[in-house]
Every structure is written in structure tokens, then in C-alpha cells.
Design a protein that fits this description.
The protein has 281 residues and is α+β, with helices and mostly antiparallel strands. The protein folds into two domains: 165 residues, no CATH class; 108 residues, no CATH class. It contains nine helices and seven strands. Helix 5 packs antiparallel against helix 6 and helix 8 packs antiparallel against helix 9.
Length: 281
């Protein structure tokens, strides 16, 4: 939104500063010199060109307060009756500090640098005549209202997005793993069991109790997606064992799983006999 000169009867400005800009109208879109109109920060430097001197810049600082307030309570009574409704707590507003723009000695370059250093938005308000104090307050209020509405729209959208994120069901790693196991062929499940068996035996030999429990849980999870004929429970119990023949038996159980997945029933029968022999000795 910019207050801009529209007069075609402009008169020369005093002291050779160029063209006097006596008239002003308001456009519908805020002009951001620094910042993103899709993500307003809620605090902005707002500047105006002087209608009588194009080299003079006036500015104020807009703040969208998180708590609504009636600014009329904080200004002299002589001005309160002329205070725009936007600043009297009757509409979303960005409160100007100071209420009327002040002359900026450093000009636009200084404002641009400060906005970037402070992470402020920088809004171009167009032109105004600072010699008319009461009239100056109205463009500040109008721009402040639109800036506040943009900010509130942005934050409301962020709140909705955050709420939707909270309501979205969280899929744990365990859930994802279960889904994968449902579609995984038996040969891949067996390969996974074999890798976990190696990890479990290493943990048993090293006395790593935490690793033993975690790996056991993973093997049991895989086993739930294999038929009972794979005898996964026996494999896990044997791999956890510290018995003298635990290593040999574990290897036979793993080989048995591979043969069953490959439907090599002849080799499977031979392995079953060797397992029973090892268990009986």
C-alpha cells in the first residue's frame, strides 16, 4: 500500500528540489522494499517521501502487538478524537512508534541497512505532506491496518498448519518396519535373520546385555512374519545361549532357514537330523 501523488497540476517545489507533490491516493497492495509479503515479520519500518521535498524521508516503526490495546489512552486528548479507528483497538493494527513519522537523517539507505540488520520489513508508503500532522496519521493507520491483516493471515495459516501436523498420526520406525516385512519375500527375511543372528552371537560373546535384548526383539519381529516351520523361536533361543555347542547349532538353524526359503526339502531333512544329533550329544 503506498500513498502516492496523482496530481497533473503539480507546482515547482521551493529551493529547486524539483516537483511539489500535493495530492495523494491509496493503492491496494503493500510495497515491500525489504521482506516477504507472504511472510510478514510483524514489525516493519514504514517510510514516506516528503511531498514538498523529494530528498527528505519520513519514517515510523510499525509493531503488530500480540496483545490488543487502545492507543487513544496514550496520546493527548487533543489528538484522541482524530485518532483513526485502526489505532483505537477496533481493528487489527500495527502500532506506529512514533505515532507520526519522524524525519530520517540517514535517508532511505540508512533505513534499508537498518531493516536488514534488525530483520525488519521495510515498507514504502509513498508520499505525504508532513506539515499536516493530523492528516499524516491516517495513511500510517491505513497501512498499519493492512500490514497487521497480512501478518494475522500469515500467523493464522501457520497455526492451522501446526495443528494439522500435530493431528497427523506419527508413523514410528517400528510401524514402517512392519509394513516392509509384510511385503518382503521370505528369502529377504531369512537374510535379515542371518545378519541379526551374527549381531546377537557377537553381543552374547561380549556380554552386551543391551545389544542382546535389542537384537532379540528385532529377530522376533522378523519371526512374526515367517511361518512356524522356520522355527525362529528355536533359532533365537540357541543364538542367545552360551552353551558349548551354541555356535554350531545356531549355524545349522540359519542354514535350515535358507534351505526352507529355497524349498530345498532334501537338504532341509538332512539339516534337521544334524540339529537333533547336536542337541542330543
Amino acid at each position: 500500500m503506498r500513498w502516492v501523488a496523482r496530481s497533473s497540476n503539480a507546482a515547482p517545489a521551493p529551493d529547486g528540489y524539483g516537483t511539489r507533490l500535493p495530492a495523494r491516493t491509496i493503492s491496494d497492495v503493500l510495497t515491500y522494499r525489504v521482506g516477504d509479503p507472504q511472510q510478514p515479520r510483524g514489525h516493519a519500518l514504514l517510510f514516506f517521501y516528503d511531498a514538498d521535498d523529494a530528498n527528505v524521508i519520513w519514517a515510523t516503526y510499525l509493531v503488530v502487538a500480540p496483545i490488543a490495546m487502545d492507543l487513544a489512552k496514550y496520546i493527548p486528548a487533543a489528538f484522541a478524537s482524530n485518532l483513526p479507528a485502526q489505532l483505537a483497538g477496533q481493528a487489527p493494527a500495527a502500532y506506529p512508534l512514533p505515532p507520526m513519522p519522524a524525519k530520517v537523517a540517514g535517508g532511505l539507505d540508512w533505513l534499508d541497512r537498518m531493516a536488514r540488520l534488525r530483520s525488519d520489513d521495510l515498507l514504502d508508503g509513498g508520499t505525504l505532506r508532513a506539515s499536516e500532522p493530523l492528516q499524516v496519521m491516517h495513511p500510517v493507520a491505513e497501512i498499519g491496518q493492512q500490514y497487521a491483516e497480512q501478518y494475522n493471515t500469515f500467523t493464522s495459516a501457520e497455526d492451522v498448519a501446526r495443528e494439522e501436523e500435530r493431528e497427523r498420526p506419527v508413523v514410528s520406525d517400528t510401524d514402517v518396519d512392519a509394513l516392509l516385512l509384510q511385503v518382503m519375500p521370505d528369502t529377504e527375511k531369512v537374510s535379515r535373520l542371518a545378519r541379526l543372528t551374527g549381531t546377537l552371537r557377537y553381543a552374547v560373546e561380549g556380554g552386551d546385555l543391551r545389544q542382546i535384548e535389542e537384537t532379540t526383539a528385532e529377530m522376533e519381529q522378523v519371526g512374526r512374519y515367517l511361518p512356524d516351520s522356520y522355527r525362529v523361536a528355536e533359532l533365537v533361543a540357541t543364538a542367545r545361549s552360551t552353551g558349548e555347542k551354541a555356535g554350531q547349532l545356531t549355524q545349522r538353524y540359519v542354514e535350515r532357514c535358507y534351505r526352507l526359503a529355497e524349498e530345498d526339502y532334501e537338504a532341509l531333512a538332512s539339516l534337521d537330523r544334524r540339529i537333533e544329533e547336536l542337541k542330543g550329544t
